[in-house]
C-alpha cells in the first residue's frame, strides 16, 4: 500500500480524485474488523448461558459476572484506545487491536472444554474480551479522520452501526455452531448433555479465529496511516471541564448504555424466564444496531433533543411493560416489550450522537463522542451486575427495571432542562439546522 503523504478531504478536487477512494477502502475494512471486536466483546453473553450445561457449576451471580466483566474492561479500554490512533496510526492500531482478539478467542475455546477450569481463569478470559470493547473508540476516531464534514455522519453511522451488529451476529451464530461437530477434528470433542445430545461450546470461540487472522492481514495490507493525525492530550482533556460533556454522557449512558447492557444480559434473562426461547436472544441487539442509523437520520430531520426525549419515554414504558409481563409469565409480552426497549435504545444512541456536534465546537465534538462512548460502555458491566444483584437480593428481576425507570426519568428531565425548554442553554439543533461552533454554550 502506497503511503499517503498529504490528506485534505475538505478539498473537493482532492476528495473526488483520490480521497474518497482511500476513505471508502479504509471504511469497508474497518467495518468487519470492528464487528469482530464486538463479537469477541460480547461472546460471554451467550457462552455463559451454556456453561453449566457442559459440566460447570457456577451460580447465577457468577454467570452474570462473566457476562458483565467484558463490559467493565471494554469501557475502560475505550479511554486508552481513543488516543491510540494518534500515537501509532490508524492502520497500525487496527492491525494490533484486531490481532489481540485472538488471545481471548483461543483461550475461551480451550477453557470451556474442561469443566474443572477455575472460575478465576474464566474471569481472566472474560476480562480479556474487554479488548474488543475498546475498539469502538479507536475505530470511529480513525474513520472520522478520513471523511469530510458533510460525510462524517454517514461514515460513522455505517462503521458504528454495522460494527454494533457483531453483538447480534454472535448471539445468532453461537446457538447454531455449538450444536454441530463439523469442526470436532480441529476443535475437540463435544460434551454429552442430560437429554442425550452433544454440545461443542468451544466452537463459539474457535469459529472466529480464522476471520480474525484474515482481517488482521487485510488491515495490514489494505488500510492507511494518515499524516497529521496526532492528538493532543491536553486539548482532549479540556472537554472534561465542560458541563455539557457530563450531561450528554448521562444521556448516552441511558441510551447506548442500555443497548449494550441489555444485549449482554438478555440471553441470560431469557434462559432464566423462558429457556425454550433463548435462541431468539439475538433479536434485541439486531434491532438496536439497525435502529442506530435511523435515529441519526430522523434527528437530522426533527432534531436530536426531540428524538432523544421520545426514545427515553419509550424506554420507560418498555421497562414498565417488561415488569408487567414478567408477573404474567407471558413470553410474547415479555419479548415484545424488550424489543421496544432495544428499538428505543438503538434509536436514542443515534439521536444523542447527533446532538453533540450542535453543542460543542468542532475541535471538541470528536473527543466528546469518544468520552461519552467510553462511559456508556460501562452499561455492559453494570446492567448484568444489577440483574444479578436483583435476583439474589429480591428473588426477581423486577427491582432492576425500577432502577432503570428512575434513570430514564432523570435523563428526560436533563434533556428537557438543557436542550428543549424555553430557557435551555442550547436549542439551535432542535430545528435540525447545520451545526455551528457554540463554545459559550459548550462551557
Automatic annotation (TrEMBL):
<feature type="transmembrane region" description="Helical">
    <location>
        <begin position="247"/>
        <end position="266"/>
    </location>
</feature>
<feature type="transmembrane region" description="Helical">
    <location>
        <begin position="27"/>
        <end position="51"/>
    </location>
</feature>
<keyword id="KW-0472">Membrane</keyword>
<comment type="similarity">
    <text>Belongs to the major facilitator superfamily. Nitrate/nitrite porter (TC 2.A.1.8) family.</text>
</comment>
<feature type="transmembrane region" description="Helical">
    <location>
        <begin position="307"/>
        <end position="326"/>
    </location>
</feature>
<protein>
    <submittedName>
        <fullName>MFS transporter</fullName>
    </submittedName>
</protein>
<keyword id="KW-1133">Transmembrane helix</keyword>
<dbReference type="InterPro" id="IPR011701">
    <property type="entry name" value="MFS"/>
</dbReference>
<feature type="transmembrane region" description="Helical">
    <location>
        <begin position="161"/>
        <end position="185"/>
    </location>
</feature>
<dbReference type="InterPro" id="IPR036259">
    <property type="entry name" value="MFS_trans_sf"/>
</dbReference>
<feature type="transmembrane region" description="Helical">
    <location>
        <begin position="332"/>
        <end position="353"/>
    </location>
</feature>
<feature type="transmembrane region" description="Helical">
    <location>
        <begin position="205"/>
        <end position="226"/>
    </location>
</feature>
<feature type="transmembrane region" description="Helical">
    <location>
        <begin position="63"/>
        <end position="81"/>
    </location>
</feature>
<dbReference type="Pfam" id="PF07690">
    <property type="entry name" value="MFS_1"/>
</dbReference>
<feature type="transmembrane region" description="Helical">
    <location>
        <begin position="119"/>
        <end position="140"/>
    </location>
</feature>
<dbReference type="InterPro" id="IPR044772">
    <property type="entry name" value="NO3_transporter"/>
</dbReference>
<feature type="transmembrane region" description="Helical">
    <location>
        <begin position="93"/>
        <end position="113"/>
    </location>
</feature>
<feature type="transmembrane region" description="Helical">
    <location>
        <begin position="365"/>
        <end position="387"/>
    </location>
</feature>
<feature type="transmembrane region" description="Helical">
    <location>
        <begin position="278"/>
        <end position="295"/>
    </location>
</feature>
<feature type="transmembrane region" description="Helical">
    <location>
        <begin position="399"/>
        <end position="419"/>
    </location>
</feature>
<keyword id="KW-0812">Transmembrane</keyword>
Amino acid at each position: 500500500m502506497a503511503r499517503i503523504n498529504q490528506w485534505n478531504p475538505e478539498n473537493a478536487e482532492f476528495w473526488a480524485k483520490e480521497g474518497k477512494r482511500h476513505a471508502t477502502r479504509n471504511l469497508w475494512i474497518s467495518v468487519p474488523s470492528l464487528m469482530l471486536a464486538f463479537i469477541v466483546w460480547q461472546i460471554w453473553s451467550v457462552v455463559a448461558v451454556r456453561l453449566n450445561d457442559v459440566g460447570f457449576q457456577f451460580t447465577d451471580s457468577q454467570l452474570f459476572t462473566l457476562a458483565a466483566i467484558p463490559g467493565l474492561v471494554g469501557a475502560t479500554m475505550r479511554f486508552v484506545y481513543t488516543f491510540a490512533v494518534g500515537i501509532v496510526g490508524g492502520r497500525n492500531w487496527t492491525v494490533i487491536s484486531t490481532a489481540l482478539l485472538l488471545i481471548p478467542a483461543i483461550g475461551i475455546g480451550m477453557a470451556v472444554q474442561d469443566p474443572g477450569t477455575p472460575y478465576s481463569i474464566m474471569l481472566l478470559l472474560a476480562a480479556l474480551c474487554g479488548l474488543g470493547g475498546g475498539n469502538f473508540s479507536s475505530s470511529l476516531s480513525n474513520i472520522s479522520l478520513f471523511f469530510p464534514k458533510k460525510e462524517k455522519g454517514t461514515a460513522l453511522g455505517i462503521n458504528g452501526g454495522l460494527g454494533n451488529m457483531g453483538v447480534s451476529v454472535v448471539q445468532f451464530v453461537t446457538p447454531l455452531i455449538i450444536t454441530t461437530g463439523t469442526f470436532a477434528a480441529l476443535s475437540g470433542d463435544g460434551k454429552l448433555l442430560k437429554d442425550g445430545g452433544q454440545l461443542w461450546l468451544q466452537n463459539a470461540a474457535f469459529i472466529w479465529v480464522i476471520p480474525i487472522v484474515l482481517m488482521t492481514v487485510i488491515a495490514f495490507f489494505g488500510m492507511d496511516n494518515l499524516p497529521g493525525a496526532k492528538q493532543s492530550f491536553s486539548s482532549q482533556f479540556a472537554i472534561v471541564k465542560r458541563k455539557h460533556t457530563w450531561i450528554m454522557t448521562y444521556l448516552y449512558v441511558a441510551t447506548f448504555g442500555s443497548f449494550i447492557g441489555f444485549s449482554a444480559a438478555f440471553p441470560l434473562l431469557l434462559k432464566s424466564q423462558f429457556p425454550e426461547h433463548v435462541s431468539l436472544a439475538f433479536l434485541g441487539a439486531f434491532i438496536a444496531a439497525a435502529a442506530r442509523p435511523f435515529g441519526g437520520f430522523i434527528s437530522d430531520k426533527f432534531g436530536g433533543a426531540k428524538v432523544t426525549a421520545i426514545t427515553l419515554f419509550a424506554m420507560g414504558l418498555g421497562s414498565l411493560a417488561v415488569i408487567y409481563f414478567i408477573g404474567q409469565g407471558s413470553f410474547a409480552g415479555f419479548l415484545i416489550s424488550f424489543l421496544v426497549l432495544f428499538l428505543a435504545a438503538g434509536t436514542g444512541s443515534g439521536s444523542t450522537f447527533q446532538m453533540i456536534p450542535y453543542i460543542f465546537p468542532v475541535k471538541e465534538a470528536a473527543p466528546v463522542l469518544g468520552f461519552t462512548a467510553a462511559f456508556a460502555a460501562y452499561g455492559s458491566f453494570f446492567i448484568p451486575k444489577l440483574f444479578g444483584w436483583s435476583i439474589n437480593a429480591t428473588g426477581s428481576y423486577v427491582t432492576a427495571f425500577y432502577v432503570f425507570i428512575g434513570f430514564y426519568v432523570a435523563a428526560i428531565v436533563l434533556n428537557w432542562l438543557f436542550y428543549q425548554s424555553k430557557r435551555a442553554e442550547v436549542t439551535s439543533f432542535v430545528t435540525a439546522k447545520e451545526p455551528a461552533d457554540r463554545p459559550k454554550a459548550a462551557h
